[in-house]
Prior knowledge:
By secondary structure, the protein is mostly helical. The chain folds into two domains: 3-146, no CATH class; 156-284, no CATH class. It has helices spanning 3-28, 35-50, 55-82, 102-113, 126-174, 184-207, 223-238, 243-267, 274-284; strands at 90-92, 121-123. A two-stranded antiparallel ribbon has the order 1-2. The chain starts with a helix and ends in a 12-residue tail after the last helix.
Amino acid sequence: MDFEDALWTVLGAVLILLMVADVFHTLLYPHGSGPVCRTIMRGFWLLSRLRGRASTIAAPLAMAAVIGAWAGLAVMGWALLYLPHLPDGFVYESGVPQRGDFVEAVYISMVTLSTVGYGEIVAGHPLLRLVTASQAVTGFGLLTATVSWILQTYPALSRRRALAHRLNLFRDAAGPEGASSLDPRHAAGLLESLAGNVASVSIDLLSFHETYYFHEVEQRGSLPATVTYAQQLASEAQASENKELRFAGRMLDAALEDLAAVLRGKFGHPGTTSSAVFDSYALHHRHRQPREPNTK
């Protein structure tokens, strides 16, 4: 193997390791996402913010692009491993032209990754047989992992939307008096339940980083548009004379502080207070207009 062949082999191994690391950090590591996934999600989100209406489909398209990037890295990585061994390292069926170019390597890699296995070109060397078998296993695992990723993402989105709807229903039912219009024990139970919902959303944002980039069309299902009402409820409850209601208010306030910390630390929202962070969150998702500068 000459220097050029060694270079292709090293480059192919790097691409494969990048794909494996990105899949691991995005799908298996509970508090993060891989560099490829993170870059694609942020890129689509920034583009969508420039084009208004496209923001509702930016995140689903970005997820599809991430899956495509993983598949592309796998195909290109293994193709570069095969390239130095073409055509001598493979056995061709009668009538199949023997080629040793990059297109041939990509074809073999795609067929192997998809586990189609036409059989007209197979690895001849024992080591190459192990490499192609490992790619087939990786392809099957990648398919399974991406399906699981999609199935796990949408329940997290549903929990976030449900919290926003609960806050809106609470606001509609309680009216301007808020929690003070209810029996203190009943109100305390509701606020403790809301605190648990807020905590679940915080965990979802940590575990499923990509869910942040899903933009809601309707404000009633948008947490960025309704989270400030939860702050209002927490403040009112903490000022109550009832111990249970004050405790529930402190629980809700603590859950909101944790959510603000996640938004500040993971997604870069500025602000030293949770109110400032939530204002930035709402503005980032286009559910609040920038405040006019005070010129008086």
